[in-house]
Every structure is written in structure tokens, then in C-alpha cells.
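Retry 2 of 3 after timeout on previous attempt. Resubmitting C-alpha cells to design endpoint.
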């Protein structure tokens, strides 16, 4: 029945995905469709009645958009992987050179500019990773009102004098489980989008001296969705939510713009500043937190973005500051490095030699297994990249375990939360390092894992 509805809209592969999600209970679109047999025909598949045709069309449109965004997310993930490797090489070798120079030297200052540029590049890939929903996060119970108040000063600094920022925060707001920095970025991106829409109105040829100033209104409240209410929001589940509404009196959007709004690199700013990633990042953050977004917009009538985030029982916490270890951590031992990217491999070898280790090197899983079989008694740690040719990382890890069930394996990947990495950790991998990594963090992890192995042999 549902296959008949969606077959004209999607490919065979997408249709299989749709049917699997429905079977798994991840969508309740099937409850909107009832099957009837028309009296004039014996063909049952000619008689489908869709309850609430306009509502169903809206949900179908949202579903097609979700499929498109999922495909774009896969593309963005590939870009992130390659770009992370480039950043790793540039940033890593730059750090190595900085460690050997005096901070007063002219070369040191020049290299610092390269490192600063790399940090900006990391921010770019972090935005893409948020869209793919594979960014690492540190979730904790928090009050969205508090986060909005903390972000207000930053927001006001981005707004011109003729745009006013207002808040209407519900005092009894429920707690949510969320990453503080990611939600702050989400709020900033939505408000910057609202600012740009208002500036388009204020700067348009039709504006005059009586044009009212711009207003961005942030509102919060608690929402309870029952089964019927959840059906009015694509991919929503019944339950308690915290709702953030951001409303502006800007230009509004056409239906054509609304359809492409969350696509990465899509922008209506033309030659003005902007990467086209702001709203796609918002989409990724909301999806990662188990929420959803509704948008109301009319040309000339402004826009309202409503973000729904699942509410929890609990008390808000505050994020603790992390300690940073600036120096590389030295050690000793033999390490098998399995990395297919030549420049990343050379960087890792330089770091390990610099810190007193003896690295053995392989560019793929099959060669790594041959090396490990030959030197298993001497190898203290295996550093294994997730994306490799010839043999998958999971198969390589299992073969290493067959040779030595006690093997210590450190995973390096640009996507620490993806399925492969989670599977490796579940099966016993000792840890994971996220690319692009800081050298002090990398060497500290290596030292701790080898030291823990040696401590276990003493007991």
C-alpha cells in the first residue's frame, strides 16, 4: 500500500529504505493511509483513499526533502574525510616545527599563522560534520533559557543598531540533554539567518523612512505531543519537548527556497559573505539531538523557525573546563601504524620517532596482518585507521585478535561516532583518536595505552 504511494517519488533503493524505516517503527505515515476497494472495480490497488490529502502532501514533501538531505550528508561526509586528512598533515607538521623553534623567532610567527588557518579549517569541517550528524559531542542536562541568556551578548554583537533582539523565555522550562556548544552554534546560526533576512528588507528599494526597525524574537516553552500531534511533524515521536521559536520580520521565503533551505552550500546571499552551511548545520544539530524543525514563512511576512528538542527529567549542569597538555609525551616501545594516506602516515611516523617509539608501517590491512604475525611478540600497540583499502578496519581488527586476543588497538578516524568506530570499541578496541588531532593529545593516548599494557603484565 505505502509502496504504491511512494514508488513514483523515489528510487528503488530509497523505497527499500522507506519500507525498512516504516517496518522498524521510525515513521507513522502508514497510519495516515487507509485502503478501500472501489465498488466499480475488482482491482484493489486502484482504490486508495488518503485521509487529509493536504496534510499527506506536506508530509510527503518533508520526507522527500529528508531523503535528499541524507544523500547530501553522505557526500559531505566524504568531503570531511579528505579535508580532515589534509588538515592533519598541515597542522601536524606545523606543530612539529613549532616545537623546535623559539617563540621569538620570525619563522615561529609565520608558522603560527599557518596553524591559525588550520584551526579555521577545522571549524569548517566541524560544521560539515554537524550536518552529517557524525560530529563528536559532550551532552549534559541543561536549561535552554540559561544558554540563550549566555549567548545573548554574542548575538547582540552581531546585530546592527536597527535590529532589536527580544526574548520571551518560559520560566518553568524543562531540562534537555544536549551539547552546550552545538546548541549555542545552532542559536547563533538561526539568528544570523534572521538578521540577514531583516537587512534585506531594510536595504530593499521599496523601504522608506517609515520602515519599522527589525526585530528578532526568541521564545521558549514546553510542548506535549500526543500521537495525533506528532503526525503533524515529520519524523516526530510523541512525548515532551522544549520548543525554541525564532521569529523575524524580514523578507520571508518563497516555497522554492524553503525546499532547499537545509542543503549544504545552498545560499541566497549571492556574492555576499556566507558559506551556505549555516542552516544545514542547524539541521544536523537538531537531528543529532533527536529533535525536529518546523518553519513558517511567507514572502514579505517574515519567518519563524521552531526547534523541538526532547525534554528530560533532571537538573541542569555546567560544563567543566578541560585541561590542556601542551607538550608531547615521550615513551618507548614498538608500534604498528596502519594508515592508507601517505602524508598522514609520514606525519605519524615522525611524531612517534620524535617521542622515542619504533614504528612499523603498513598502508593496508592485509600487509598489517603479515607484519603483526611476524612481530606480534614485539609490538606494544596497533594504531588503526578506520577507512582503508583492501580490507575493512573491522575485519582487520578481528584478524589481529585471532593472532593475539590481548592486542591493544588505538583507532584513528574523522568520525568517532560512526557505526564502524562504535562497533570496533564494542568489540574491544582500546580507544579512539579523532582527526585532525593535536599532537600532545595523540602522544598522551599512545603513552597511556602502552603503559596500561605493561602494568597489566606486572600483575
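Retry 2 succeeded. Sequence:
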Amino acid at each position: 500500500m505505502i509502496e504504491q504511494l511512494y514508488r513514483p517519488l523515489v528510487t528503488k533503493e530509497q523505497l527499500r529504505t522507506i519500507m525498512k524505516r516504516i517496518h522498524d517503527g521510525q515513521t507513522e505515515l502508514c497510519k495516515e493511509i487507509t485502503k478501500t476497494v472501489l465498488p466499480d472495480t475488482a482491482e484493489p490497488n486502484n482504490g486508495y483513499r488518503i485521509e487529509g490529502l493536504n496534510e499527506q502532501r506536506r508530509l510527503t514533501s518533508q520526507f522527500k526533502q529528508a531523503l535528499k538531505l541524507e544523500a547530501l550528508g553522505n557526500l559531505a561526509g566524504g568531503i570531511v574525510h579528505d579535508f580532515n586528512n589534509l588538515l592533519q598533515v598541515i597542522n601536524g607538521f606545523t606543530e612539529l616545527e613549532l616545537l623546535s623553534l623559539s617563540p621569538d623567532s620570525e619563522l615561529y610567527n609565520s608558522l603560527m599563522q599557518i596553524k591559525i588557518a588550520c584551526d579555521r579549517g577545522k571549524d569548517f569541517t566541524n560544521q560539515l560534520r554537524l550536518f552529517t550528524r557524525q560530529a563528536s559531542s559532550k551532552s549534559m542536562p541543561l536549561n535552554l533559557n540559561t544558554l540563550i541568556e549566555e549567548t545573548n551578548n554574542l548575538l547582540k554583537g552581531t546585530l546592527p543598531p536597527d535590529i532589536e533582539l527580544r526574548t520571551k523565555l518560559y520560566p518553568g522550562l524543562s531540562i534537555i540533554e544536549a551539547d552546550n556548544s552545538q546548541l549555542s552554534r545552532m542559536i547563533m546560526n538561526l539568528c544570523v539567518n534572521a538578521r540577514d533576512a531583516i537587512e534585506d528588507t531594510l536595504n530593499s528599494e521599496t523601504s522608506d523612512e517609515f520602515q519599522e526597525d527589525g526585530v528578532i524574537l526568541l521564545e521558549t516553552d514546553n510542548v506535549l505531543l500526543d500521537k495525533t500531534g506528532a503526525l503533524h511533524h515529520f519524523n516526530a515521536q510523541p512525548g515532551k519537548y522544549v520548543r525554541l521559536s525564532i521569529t523575524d520580520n524580514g523578507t520571508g521565503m518563497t516555497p522554492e527556497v524553503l525546499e532547499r533551505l537545509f542543503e549544504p552550500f545552498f545560499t541566497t546571499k549571492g556574492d555576499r559573505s556566507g558559506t551556505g552551511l549555516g542552516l544545514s548545520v542547524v539541521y544536523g544539530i537538531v537531528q543529532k539531538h533527536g529533535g525536529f524543525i518546523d518553519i513558517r514563512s511567507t514572502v514579505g511576512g517574515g519567518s519563524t523557525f521552531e526547534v523541538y528538542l526532547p525534554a528530560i527529567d533532571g537538573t541542569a549542569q555546567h560544563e567543566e573546563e578541560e585541561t590542556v597538555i601542551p607538550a608531547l609525551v615521550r615513551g618507548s616501545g614498538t608500534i604498528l601504524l596502519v594508515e592508507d594516506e601517505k602524508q598522514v602516515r609520514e606525519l605519524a611516523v615522525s611524531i612517534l620517532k620524535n617521542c622515542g617509539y619504533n614504528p612499523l608501517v603498513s598502508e593496508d590491512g592485509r600487509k598489517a596482518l603479515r607484519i603483526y604475525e611476524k612481530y606480534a611478540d614485539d609490538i606494544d600497540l596497533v594504531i588503526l585507521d578506520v577507512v582503508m583499502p583492501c580490507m575493512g578496519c573491522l575485519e582487520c581488527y578481528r584478524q589481529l585478535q585471532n593472532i593475539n586476543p590481548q592486542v591493544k588497538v588505538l583507532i584513528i578516524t574523522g568520525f568517532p561516532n560512526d557505526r564502524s568506530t562504535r562497533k570496533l570499541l564494542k568489540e574491544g578496541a582500546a580507544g579512539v583518536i579523532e582527526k585532525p588531532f593535536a599532537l600532545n593529545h595523540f602522544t598522551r593516548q599512545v603513552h597511556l595505552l602502552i603503559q596500561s599494557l605493561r602494568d597489566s603484565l606486572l600483575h
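Attempt log closed. DSSP finds 14 helices and 14 strands in the chain.
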